[in-house]
């Protein structure tokens, strides 16, 4: 069968070269010239770097622990609802992902400060109480980031073929509750939980914004210091090498994950029959939503001051909000469109080197990708125009998150269906009519949802943006992150409120639009 919309292996190879180009340029341009300097550069792995790596691993463990626990609680509430109300909970579960983690962290810092020190008018930047000592620790960082990342575990559980009613009813006839859980429930949950745990753990290893607010010396912060303070690109690249170790197990497990995450084509997941169990699961779900959504929102609203101040800050920062949205949405749309095109000729039979390279780009700290594109931009002759700087920032966004577009392309083509593609290939139409009349009507709704989800990842980026944004073109996330360290209070809280609300409202608007179009 002749495949349409292939674009050619040459163009796909060129795209792969462009994606890995910033890392290659950074390595070639910053590497030591002499063998002695090369061996001496490995001294960057000193005792302090190893201690910070251990701290990052501990933080990632607690993040994974809390995220999986919260995700399981909400999934229990999901199984306690009727099939008609479950989609509503699924959309609400995306809201914690729309909160940039360092924005939620600052809100929890304000909340703990006001709880332990009601008369204190500003954020405490060190531990002055029992709850503050807990918050300013690896355990507290894991708690905050777990509240931000638990939707990953919940979404993978809902996508997986969970225990079905017929299986549970058959198990209850001749098994104890423990045997039913061990032989029926756990086999259905095992693969999504392992996949979610691996993803969350690796994302936890990359965190540096939240730990820096909580005064934690973590490994990514050392890499960021090598780039921005010591101006040693080669040392920073060497420090990034341990992250590549996660590529091997993840690349090995990626082809096996879809089999365990296959959506069940029959009846919906089992609903708890016990009214007491349903009530407990729904109460736990409400508590998780309150901790991850309402507490940060209420904390920033109370700290932001009067309504007139919030309105003034909103109007003053409207251009920055629009610019930040344009950056994030444009890059996210590029990621999804290019990812869908890239996977159009592959189906699911991809060469393992392709996802391994994309996974490496995603696992590496964003500051490394940004530094590579900054090096490429320095080769441009003459004065750097603002448009070129903005284009470089978008290129860095796309490079770092292209793995998400790759996954979205596989899901979108699976949604479109292999049989439908085979039928369309018999129509013998050109590429533009094929996209206009066949692909867009079928894929624009899931494509828009995928774009918004990728936009949430880019909205709160600090590492790449702080290196690459053009003069006067900083994003809301960068401005808020900088103001947090200067100690400005009410105005900073108002900006933080915008940082949390804008992506949440964008997410709700996009899903409402797609739901209305589907109906």
Structure characterization notes:
The chain has 519 residues and is mainly alpha-helical. It folds into two domains: 1-44 and 305-519, MetI-like (MetI-like fold, Orthogonal Bundle); 52-303, MetI-like fold (Orthogonal Bundle), CATH 1.10.3720.10. It is 76% helix and 0% strand. The protein is built from 26 helices and no strands. Helix 1 (9-30) packs across helix 20, helix 9 (165-174) packs across helix 10 (177-205) and helix 17 (307-316) crosses helix 26 (490-518). The longest helix has 34 residues, at 47-80. The radius of gyration is 24 Å and the shape is globular. The two termini are 34 Å apart. The model is unreliable at 1-6 and 258-267 (pLDDT under 50).
Strand content: under 5%
Largest sheet: none
The run of helices and strands is HHHHHHHHHHHHHHHHHHHHHHHHHH
What is the first-to-last residue Cα distance? Answer: 34 Å
Quantity of strands, as a count: 0
From the 3D structure, determine the CATH topology of the largest domain.
Answer: MetI-like fold
Topology:
Blueprint: H1 9-30, H2 35-41, H3 47-80, H4 86-92, H5 95-98, H6 101-116, H7 130-135, H8 138-159, H9 165-174, H10 177-205, H11 209-213, H12 219-228, H13 233-244, H14 247-253, H15 257-260, H16 275-303, H17 307-316, H18 318-342, H19 353-363, H20 366-378, H21 386-416, H22 418-424, H23 431-459, H24 465-468, H25 476-486, H26 490-518
